[in-house]
Amino acid sequence: MAQVAPPADCKKQMLRFIFTRLTLIIPTFIGITLLAFLLVHSVPGDPIEVMAGERGVSAARHAQLLHDYGFDRPLYIQYLVYIEHVVSGDLGLSLITHSPVIEEFRQLFPATIELSLSAMLFAILLGLPAGIIAAVRRNSIFDHGVMGVSLTGYSMPIFWWGLLLIIFFSNTLDWTPVSGRIGAEYDVEPVTGFLLIDSLFSDDEGAFASAVSHLILPMVVLGTIPLAVIARMTRSSMLEVLGEDYIRTARAKGLAPIWVICVHALRNALIPVVTVIGLYIGSLFAGAILTETIFSWPGVGKWLVEAINRRDYPVLQGGVMLIGTVVMIVNLTVDVLYGFINPRIRHTR
Amino acid sequence: MATETERLVSSSPTPPGPIRETWRYFRQNPGAVGGLITIGIIILLAILADAISPHSPVAIHDDAFLRPPFWEEGGSLTYILGTDAIGRDMLSRLIHGTRYSLLIGSVVVTISLIGGVVVGLIAGFFRGATEILIMRFMDIVLTMPGLLLAIVIVAILGPGIINAVISVAIVYLPFFVRVTRAAVIGELVKDYVTASRVNGASTARLMFLTILPNCLAPLIVQATLSFSAAILDAAALGFLGLGAQAPTPEWGTMLADAREFVLRAWWVVTLPGLAILITVLAFNLMGDGLRDALDPRLKR
Questions:
Q1: What's this model's pTM, rounded to 2 decimal places?
Q2: Does the ipTM surpass 0.85?
Q3: For residue A266, which of A124, A132, A126, A127 has the smallest C-alpha distance?
Q4: Across-strand partners of B79?
């Protein structure tokens, strides 16, 4: 086969690819803010009544508040005012704690990132080797086992899975704590907000071990579905690559089988797997809503569910907007990175 | 030689119809057949729920709080799988739960299938600005993580089983739009469509009678897989207190009620979740089998 020279306009294509991806940011951001804005405005009853709650307000005070908050102005003006506030970083105050929504988010978000990243790491470290071995030993007991377990994991109601693990590991075996991020006896100064890092550098002995033991169960629960998907994806992608001619050539050359599998096959098989990993990072934040609720993990997911139950609309509005924006940025970054690692994507015309 | 070939061709049996052919592939997949049988049993349970449940799913038995299943100490055959915290029979509630799960799945799939097909047909058929507008909007919806979007919509509409179903249906709609549009664009360039157009078929006829039947295969697969995902999401909403409300014997809601007894009574927690897992697994197995059978190219 003749050597194919890289097209001259390679760089230009890459730039165009990035540009088209970036142009999606603005409409998506408008969509997310619109959703968050409509959220508060579609609540039955008007927002003042919602804020007043069961106490209620007098008619005069009600009219005054409507005017103060600008709720008597046309809807599109209200939306523009809201956007102006959002852009300047003002997401309002929580109705319950009266602290700025953005500040609460900033304090809780590291906990969610810590949980999501460890879950993803868990899923990759277990899913990749499982998928590779299943593909290499196709139709073996191991292969059937991996496929069966991963289909079950994929169908798992993770909120139930979390409760099962609590029954077994926390209650029956008494190995891990039931809730929270670290034992109450440790007082770790939040430098990075990531307790694993903070506790490692703190003077408290045992703080790190406590943080790890708190993290294990939520990590497994949140990582279960990505683990199942990664294992399945790795297996099917490896099977496809292992049937290619260049693998037969590599084998015929007398290369060690492990070398053929880990270098020749894996490098090409990983491309679709990386996409799936990227796509799942975004949805992990949503899965964290359930996991954090079960394990009382003090992250943004639990915060959102509490806001719904307490009818804390500014928190709900701000939280949805912020999480939506974070997921959007993560997805777009993954898209662009994917363009870098897989030239086929940017060369498709 | 030529006559020999002709004879062979003319004597070969008629090719099997699409349904028969699909069934032939489907039958070879033990997982898929197992899924189909399980779904059949679940449907039967749902139909016969009133007849086979030993008790009413909402009846409260004052003398039997948190009774364990019959094989555990303190259990009895009156309540085969035990009772919950306020003395309702677990088995009867689990059986009646099949109705809610199947209903949730079918309503969600029906709404998002019909909505998605219509929007997807419009996008694929008219192309241009209409298509860009529709697909960009769907991209925006897809950016939001599904469960988060469902939670937001329920927060707007208010908690309850109907609103939970609507919100989950909205979450799955974009997938059907994408699948339909892709299939329509693939079909539009084929000769039979041109022939029909030349024959003077109206746009609506072209869309729904000529093209749509040929786009069914990917839609059926998407529908089966969405069915299981919808059951999971609706159960998650029930678990968060946003879906079906007590005393409805919906499995997710039952789990939410059981949470505080997680360390005292394993059965009130384990059984509803197991029911969800089995149902979802059955639909996923069948969906995988259907995908392989309908599109052998995708066979993994």
A1: 0.84
A2: no
A3: A132
A4: B76
